[in-house]
């Protein structure tokens, strides 16, 4: 997506990564790493942040390799910061370190991507999983955004904040009770901030990714209930494709970004007060989805009803059962 | 249609506002009620009002009304509170759980301290989660085909300036409710989610003190806790998953100021009706995969909202 005439006419050039500093949390693997490489190839400075130093170093090599053909390669700065982003002070420290490599200037683009999911049967999972998931997925993003938005406002940087949510942030199914609320919360935050950060000329985007084939996804499959797997289906995209879709959406200036037709359909049907990407198409999509979701949901509900025996519960014997 | 008669209703945040009005309504319909909140003083006062609401019933002597003081943002306290409530009913988990306890601290995003965001999520979302998780487990184990009701908010369906600490928590409740509606079919437990508009409660008055002006301008006028409770009750009885304040009956009742002259389109009344109408229309345009209340009507309203 370059600054060509075509893209200018179609208003798809709203984002020029060249020379900008892009800060990506969870940037050592999966979507974060592929997006980092994409940004590097477009001539952006990149800082990635994650926990594992080893993964960060490996990713950094790939990012540098991706930028080698850029004309301004010698001037580009690629850095890695190791931090536990689920902690407030570490998130601040990481952002500080990233900024320090650029004379204290806050990054121009913040990609809040760090997150994970532990799917499972609700009443069987321990509360601690729910707490950990919210702590990284939501608070991990919040801590970085809060600090970055403050710095952007104070330094007069008209930056971008990109929040990676999920289709699970637009709807919910069995198996995702610890994950969907965290991604819904990110949507709520993105929507509030899209509106409020107009105060400081900071733009906000929210990416509702579908299923991406990452190391994280492979971990998820270990605890995911069968019904959840059946509903999700086998359709997944590569991290590279997901990164491209995200980039495309940002260039078009879309607030709500999705990368596949299902994501788009759900997006259109849960728009509420959010900006449409294309008002006419969205209305059409919303109408079609409204028709399709009725039988679809009936079918998903039936899957649960028909498979109750697969999820037995040990009955309590200390109480009279009165139905 | 669902009947609350002889059911045990457990309400968190039940000593004030919507929780208390709903408790009184339940008592008047012949339900056993346990309310849970932090302040013992408020709980005791509320208990008196709840008992009073049921006094005219002939089965009054058989109804059990109890209070439990607990900090529901803490896991252990939430379990203890549910235990105490169940112990008054031979260990049987309540039939209906209303997760209503919550706070809102509106303000300018970059100015508010991070701990406000943490506290709000801890009570609004985790407070509901802890109780729901334990209750669902027990309902499944005891074979109680119960109900779980989450009180979310219109701020759980959209967000704007001032609500960055609150809207995410209410969105999270929607996400949880939607997942649970689907999953708890396994145990014949039904789930409801109430997207309340602005309600005139003591908390609301506190919020108004710190709310940014832009936020106040966007928000409409509040409805009374009594009307909100009625709308919630109606939605539960009809079996609606997504519940919003009723636009016809209760809106008109809320705006009716007694005299015939005022009944049709009093100045304030019309604005209130339109705001409630907007709320419902808005919710429907955000429905995604959630069940509609009335498929045809919803489709129509969805179309209107798109234009709006």
TrEMBL record, chain A:
One of its GO terms (cellular component) is endoplasmic reticulum membrane. It is found in: Endoplasmic reticulum. GO terms for biological process: 3-keto-sphinganine metabolic process; sphingolipid biosynthetic process. The keyword Endoplasmic reticulum applies. Pathway: Lipid metabolism; sphingolipid metabolism; Sphingolipid metabolism. It catalyses: sphinganine + NADP(+) = 3-oxosphinganine + NADPH + H(+). Coiled coil: none annotated. Its EC number is 1.1.1.102. Keywords: Endoplasmic reticulum, Lipid metabolism, NADP, Oxidoreductase, Sphingolipid metabolism. Catalyzes the reduction of 3'-oxosphinganine (3-ketodihydrosphingosine/KDS) to sphinganine (dihydrosphingosine/DHS), the second step of de novo sphingolipid biosynthesis. The keyword Electron transport does not apply. One of its GO terms (molecular function) is 3-dehydrosphinganine reductase activity. It comes from Gigaspora rosea. This is 3-dehydrosphinganine reductase.
From TrEMBL, chain B:
Its EC number is 1.1.1.102. Pathway: Sphingolipid metabolism; Lipid metabolism; sphingolipid metabolism. Its main location: endoplasmic reticulum. GO terms for molecular function: 3-dehydrosphinganine reductase activity. GO terms for cellular component: endoplasmic reticulum membrane. It catalyses: sphinganine + NADP(+) = 3-oxosphinganine + NADPH + H(+). Keywords: Endoplasmic reticulum, Lipid metabolism, NADP, Oxidoreductase, Sphingolipid metabolism. GO terms for biological process: 3-keto-sphinganine metabolic process; sphingolipid biosynthetic process. It is found in: Endoplasmic reticulum. Catalyzes the reduction of 3'-oxosphinganine (3-ketodihydrosphingosine/KDS) to sphinganine (dihydrosphingosine/DHS), the second step of de novo sphingolipid biosynthesis. PANTHER family: 3-KETODIHYDROSPHINGOSINE REDUCTASE. This is 3-dehydrosphinganine reductase. It comes from Gigaspora rosea.
């Amino acid at each position: 997506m370059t600054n060509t005439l075509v893209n200018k006419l179609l208003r798809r050039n709203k984002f020029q990564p060249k020379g900008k500093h892009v800060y990506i949390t969870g940037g050592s693997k999966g979507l974060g790493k592929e997006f980092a490489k994409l940004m590097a190839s477009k001539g952006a400075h990149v800082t990635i942040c994650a926990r594992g130093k080893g993964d960060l170093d490996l990713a950094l090599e790939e990012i540098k390799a991706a930028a080698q053909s850029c004309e301004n390669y010698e001037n580009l700065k690629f850095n890695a910061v190791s931090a536990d982003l689920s902690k407030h002070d570490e998130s601040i420290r990481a952002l500080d370190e990233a900024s320090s490599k650029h004379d204290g200037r806050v990054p121009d683009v913040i990609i809040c991507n760090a997150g994970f999911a532990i799917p499972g049967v609700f009443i069987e999972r321990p509360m601690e999983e729910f707490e950990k998931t919210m702590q990284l997925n939501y608070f991990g993003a919040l801590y970085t955004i809060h600090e970055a938005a403050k710095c952007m406002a104070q330094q007069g940087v008209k930056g971008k904040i990109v929040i990676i949510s999920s289709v699970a942030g637009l709807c919910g199914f069995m198996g995702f009770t610890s994950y969907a609320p965290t991604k819904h919360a990110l949507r709520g935050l993105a929507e509030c901030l899209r509106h409020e950060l107009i105060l400081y000329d900071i733009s906000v985007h929210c990416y509702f990714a579908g299923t991406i084939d990452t190391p994280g996804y492979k971990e998820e499959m270990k605890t995911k209930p069968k019904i959840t797997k059946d509903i999700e289906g086998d359709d997944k995209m590569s991290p590279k494709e997901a990164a491209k879709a995200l980039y495309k959406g940002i260039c078009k200036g879309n607030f709500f970004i999705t990368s596949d037709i299902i994501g788009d359909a759900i997006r259109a049907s849960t728009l509420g007060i959010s900006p449409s990407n294309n008002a006419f198409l969205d209305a059409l999509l919303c109408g079609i989805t409204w028709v399709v979701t009725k039988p679809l949901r009936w079918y998903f509900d039936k899957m649960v009803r028909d498979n109750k025996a697969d999820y037995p519960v040990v009955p309590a014997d200390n109480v009279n059962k009165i139905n | 249609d669902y009947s609350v008669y002889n059911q045990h209703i457990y309400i968190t945040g039940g000593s004030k506002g919507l929780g208390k009005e709903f408790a009184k309504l339940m008592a008047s319909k012949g339900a056993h009620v346990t309310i849970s909140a932090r302040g013992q003083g408020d709980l005791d006062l509320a208990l008196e009002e709840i008992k009073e609401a049921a006094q005219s019933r002939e089965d009054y002597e058989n109804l059990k009304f109890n209070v439990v003081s607990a900090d529901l943002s803490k896991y252990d306290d939430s379990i203890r509170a549910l235990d105490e409530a169940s112990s008054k009913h031979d260990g049987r988990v309540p039939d209906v759980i209303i997760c209503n306890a919550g706070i809102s601290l509106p303000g300018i995003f970059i100015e508010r301290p991070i701990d406000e965001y943490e506290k709000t999520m801890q009570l609004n979302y985790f407070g509901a989660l802890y109780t729901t998780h334990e209750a669902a487990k027990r309902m499944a184990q005891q074979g109680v085909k119960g109900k779980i009701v989450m009180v979310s908010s219109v701020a759980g369906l959209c967000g704007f300036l001032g609500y960055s600490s609150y809207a995410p928590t209410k969105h999270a409740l929607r996400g949880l409710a939607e997942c649970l509606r689907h999953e708890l079919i396994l145990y014949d437990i039904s789930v409801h989610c109430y997207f309340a508009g602005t309600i005139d409660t003591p908390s609301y008055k506190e919020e108004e003190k710190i709310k940014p002006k832009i936020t106040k301008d966007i928000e409409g006028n509040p409805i009374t806790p009594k009307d909100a409770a009625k709308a919630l009750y109606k939605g539960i009885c009809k079996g609606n998953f997504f519940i919003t304040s009723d636009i016809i009956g209760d809106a008109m009742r809320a705006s009716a100021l007694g005299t015939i002259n005022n009944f049709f389109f009093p100045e304030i009344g019309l604005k209130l009706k339109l705001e409630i109408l907007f709320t419902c229309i808005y919710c429907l345009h955000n429905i995604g995969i959630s069940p509609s209340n009335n498929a045809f009507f919803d489709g129509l309203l969805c179309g209107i909202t798109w234009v709006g």
